[in-house]
Amino acid sequence: MSESTSQEEPKAAQENEKDKDGKQEATEVNESSEKPQSQPGSSSLDTSNNAAEEATNEIKSQELKSEGQLKTSTDSTEEFNIGVSKNIVVTKSAKVVFDLDRTIQDSNLEQLWKENLFERVEARTRAMQQKIIDKDNLKKELEKKAEKKIPKDNLAKEWFNIENMTVDDRVYLLDKLLPTLVLGVEKMLMQVEKKKFLTEVDIPTKFDPINYLGEYLMRNNPYYIKGSRMSGYQRVMREVTEDLKIHVTNTISNRVSKMKEKIKERQEQRENINNLKVKVANTRKQALQEQFNEWIVDPKGMIPMTVIQNVLHEFFQNPDFQFGSHFKPLNIADSMEPRLDKMEFIEYVSSQIADFKSEMFEEFLKHLCHCADEFREVIKMDMQRQMFAELFLHCDCGKVGFLDRQRTLALLETFYDQSSKMLRSLLRNPRQWPFIEFEEIDLPEFWGDMDNQKHIYEDFDNVLLEMNTLLSEKHASKTQSELLKNSEDQHEHDKHRKSTLSPGVPEQQQGTIAGPEPNEILTEEQDTESMGEQELYRESITAQGQHKGSTMQQGIYRGSTIEEESHRESVVERGPHRGSIAEGSGRESVSVVEEGPHGGSIAEEGPRRGSVTRKGSQRGSVVEDGSRRESLSQNGSRKGSHRESITGETYKGSTEEQEPPRETIPEEQDMDSTSQSKEDSILTESEKSRESTPFEHIEIPPQEEKTEEQICKEQLFTLSELQEEDPVSSRKDHLSETTEEKVQKDKACEPKSPQIEGKSWSGELFTCNWKKYAKCEDEEQANLIYDNSRFTDLHSIIRNIQAHKEVKGRSAFNGVSFNLLQFVQVLETFVGEDAPLSVSETLTSFFKKGYVETEEEKMSALEGARQKASQVRQRLLLEALFQMWDSDASGFLDLKEVDELLYEYKEGMEKESIETAKLFIQFPKPHPGDEVSLSPKQFQKYIQLIVSELNGNEDRALESLVEFLMTAVERSHIESLRNSARRKWLHHIQRAAETSGVSVEPVYTETFKALTQDAQVHGNKKISAHISLLEENQLLPERGTVLLRNTACTLDDAPFVLNKVLYRDMKGISFTVVDEGKPIHVPQVQHHGNIFFWDHSHRKTDQNGSLLALPLQDAYMRIFGVMAVDTLRDPQKINIFLPHEIKFYQGVANVFSTAYHYVHSREHILHVVITGISWLYNITPSITSITTYFIEPSPQQGSGYVLRNMMVTGPMGLTEIHRNPPTIFRKTCTFRDFLFRCTDSSEVVLASVYGENHIVIPLRERTGEAIGALDFNIGRSKMLFYREFKDLQKMMKVIQAACYEILGELSGEIQKNLVLEIENAGEVQRAGVLFFRIMLQELQESLQMLPSMHFISLLLYDYNPLAEPESLSDSQSQEAEANIKLIHDILMGVILFVDPDLELSSDLGNWDKCKLHINRYLVEKICAFDPTAKDVKVNLKLIGEYIKDHSRIEVWKFGNIVIEYLYHWSHICLALIEINQKLNDSVKPPFPSKTDSRVYAKMPGGNWLGKC
């Protein structure tokens, strides 16, 4: 009834409105049809008035017709609309809704009624509005026609006068009086003229002009006469009136006029802005069109859209611009298929940056240029990867999917040894980390090796130190030149500098500058060099190492950023090696100061060097002999030799003591001869290397060699760059630099080649298609099982297993072999980014010849591949069988039930084999009732042991046994569906842990969701649940040593349950579950008597329902909490839990326990990483930032994995930890794919992006797969100093060992190893000190391996230098005294640790007595010392006074292995003691809370760590 009433009322109202409208319109028509009666004297009007009358009649008739048409069309439209709405209502299909509230039905009906009414009203409103618009338009058209028929009388324009004093009166008269008065006067005058009153003056008449005029005005009053005809004069007068009204203030016309003027101005402004925008857009499009030519395109002249989207994404994510949420979100393409040609590129980019300001657009253009250059590097590296991938397939003759690791590394070592000096400067040493693993390095070598020659780059430290020497010389010369006040002094100074050169110096030495004495380099001024000087050097080096994409000037230093303590290390090495090293490099090279026999140093800067330097297209100097002389090997041993190359031409006496003079090349040659001599020198060095090595020398073909030489020329680093601001430089060099700059500008303006080293891009990227090369054993074996009809019942389960696999696409490191991704990555790390493709081609051909396998090795590899495939197949079959058998998803099987079916196999003939297999497996402890439960891993191991005891082939025996068990286990269709749904819910819990970003809150959410969904679907119950965890009872220990705290619960119970505490002396069954370790089911809680109810608001009579309490166990079967589920909120009075529900809840508890510990294990790993980073930052200042990533499954099903940016450590060592870590997708990393290359291959990656160099190191699981990565950004420096590089290795080795330990304890594979006393304080406290504990163990083990002679040599060190004090110079004696003080202080600090009673003894200040404590028991005391023990009481202040004054650099330069060990050991002990003293507030996990978006953390105890 209500619905019909609501429909009739609007209908009646609408009809009434129509009737009223019709009457009003009829009235208007009647009124308008009435015409005014003819006036007296109307016949005297002229023809213009008649025309006006005709035009007026025509206008009225047209208006009447239009109104009738509009009315008819409107009525018909409304009737049509009404009819349609009636049809919709009548024919609308009814919906049948079960169990729907009455209020919902009423609201739906009311909503439909309102929608119908609004539609009708809206249609009528639109029709009325259109009617008015059409009427106005028709009037305007008719008025235009009338104007054409009635000419205007422009005489009326004389009334227009905008004088301010009279404009108001004038407007009033023109508007109210004059239009009628003028016509009246005109009529009167026409009447007077007609009757000839003016000519017949004396004739009396009754005509009174005043009366006539009055009558006329009364008859033609505009207020009473509508639609009177209007003359041309009146029309013009009305126009004048309207124009004058504009100038009358505070009137509508005036305000409207002003509004129109403003609107017009705004329109003009808008048009100007639009025109300007169009011009700017066209200019930008032209700039983008030119910029498109900078990109490498595919054969069709197109660029992949995903590349451009990555460019935009990188720019929008730049924190310097602070876009925030203003930029448009990009839906980055998942593949390389969508492509953009030039016009599409311009349109797409323009649409994304339309709102950019000019400054921002300029920055974007720079970014595009950098990205275009980076894309060239990406394509070059991709070509290299494709070569290495094809090489892998060529070497993998048996198609087993892996190559031998040791043979691969041996070939790399051979290639490295046989390469020329110049080529070795580009390659990385394969004998060092990261090619060899930490475990493969002996402890003494790992912790105590301080040989700079073992750097990954040959002679890297020496070259960098020589750079510092050149910097100090440049700074000294610049300071000296500033003291010269006038040009005359400057001229005298230049003249004096030239005269200092001996006339007898060889021609090639002319133009060189004498350097300072060695002792002068160590002056106090240099040691106290200000930060401003360091910044000056940093800027000078950075200017040379600009981004390689734009300038392609990258080398050993890539714009090397020197560490903060560079002034301390800018010392030329002392010793018999007089000649310093000039290292040739790939993109830059350093010309070095050569120390002469008299202590002087000569900077090789001859005229010829300057001319050679200017030949390159970029600023750089050719190292005089980096590519002309072979390296000097003093002992014939490459590993222990100090390689030297002669700088410049042979200086008299500089190399006489080492070897005979080499053949010299004349210095005065032109550009072409210089280039030719370099090529000859490379061949000469190759020949000499072949003579000195038993291996065949690796030579690059002539064409390739030329390419490499040209690239090296363009990328060498020049000494003149350091001296370009030096006013003492020669004018010839200055002119050469000017010429060089012009050449650079000209070459910068030249268009870039569309090819890369003469090769065109195919349009495909290996990084996008690597899956076609990679081999996934799981998928292959799963496909084979799908094709086997014997296991049809397992197919759906195996598909779910594959779909629910944690993370796909990762390779496991095993230390024995390389798969394709690992092989490609290792070769790419070896070659580096600076080497041309010709080097990769040479390496590929070398590998094809050198990688040869014997038949036995091939057969062994095939057998290994077969066994691996068999293991994967067995695992899939047994895992699917377990899930099929465990239909309730409890996570375990009863051993008795399993044995009963196994004994029936082959009618009991294999019972003896089953019993034998039980002897080799350790089953878990039986539960009360002698029930033994098998987990999935235990079940698989049990079945595999049984199969190994059976006769015949193991694979066939396993398949036969699985087939038997599969058919023997009977499961109904309902059970299968229930099992599938429950497996899905359990997977959601585990996935929530894996994608939580190290947060346990999503795990709680998914756990309660699984419980409630199963209760509703499979139990028809409404449940409540909560989880309580065990805690140590510190506040009220008399109520029990532990308590249970409710950490999470369902939403309805939160006010009563959340954060509540249950003690042992309170009612409840939870502690019984904790003690017994088994579930307890209470069918009716109201009759139990020992149930604690959290909600006290209910009456006891309403407390009806069932309760189930389940223990939460870790991998060691230890109870850490209780999960309780009840039905107190269920409306049914009796609703107990069925057996299949109890089993599923046990499965939920098991999965929750796994997920909970998964999250906390990641938290502990992050805690360890923070500790390690803080330790490293104190002694390695060259690192710009460290970013920690974790791997998580991708939100999109089946699309691999993503990376989460967990935390970032900045330059000050402060770590920013994200609460909601940003997600990094693979498709957004076209230019930063080094992160995914690291996690894909589980190998270390060295990469350079946007001019910054990165060292990306994987964090591995115990299986060898990567769980995350640490990205070390070292800025523009190509590599760290060897000392910093070794400290980085130490930090990563300890962190990786801690990861192995944490993950092993999580899975139960290893037992907990509690070494320090502080580790018993709790899991969180243990994670905070685990890094130090492992490092302490490593150092203790290393000390135990040292022979006693190392300690004896330290005790005798102070006697040797002082034996002959006359033989030592001042600097040497000062250095000896500093070394003696270092030895005494470090040893005294160690002695005070292990013998704290010495502090109170009088022997403390007597070194001769203190050194007696250094005996054979000292190492034993050090190894047994626990700095966190309660009985340890040491004087930290006193020990700190001995140790803290010595820097890390000082210890490294001293180069003693014992001092190196004890230095690290003492600082770690100090840090652990401080942490132990602040245990309650310093070792908590520094992770964000619910209200924090991020937190900042720094490791406690950092004040005691060493400083640089």
Report what the structure shows.
Strands 16, 17, 18, 19, 20, 21, 22 and 23 form an eight-stranded antiparallel β-sheet that branches. This protein has a six-stranded antiparallel β-sheet with strand order 12-11-10-15-14-13, sandwiched between helices. A three-stranded antiparallel β-sheet has the order 4-6-5, covered by helices on one side. The longest helix is centred in the first third of the chain and has 48 residues. Helix 1 runs parallel beside helix 3, helix 5 crosses helix 6 and helix 32 crosses helix 35. It starts with a helix and ends in an 11-residue tail after the last strand. The protein contains 52 helices and 23 strands. It has 1508 residues and is of the alpha+beta class. 53% of the residues lie in helices and 7% in strands. The radius of gyration is 47 Å and the shape is extended. A hairpin with a 5-residue loop joins strand 21 and strand 22.
Write a concise keyword list for the protein shown above.
7% strand, six-stranded antiparallel β-sheet, single chain, 23 strands, eight-stranded antiparallel β-sheet, alpha+beta, 1508 residues
Overall structural class, as computed from helix and strand content, comes to alpha+beta
- Work out the number of β strands: 23
Alpha-carbon distance between the termini? 90 Å
Radius of gyration: 47 Å
Bulk shape: extended
Strand proportion, as a percent range, falls in: 5-15%
- Largest sheet: number of strands, sense, barrel closure: 8 strands, antiparallel
Mean of all residue-level pLDDT scores? 74
Uncertain segments of ≥5 residues (pLDDT<50)? 1-56, 63-67, 69-102, 495-749
Please tally the helical runs, counting DSSP H or I stretches of 4 or more residues: 52
Assign a percent range to the helix content: 40-55%
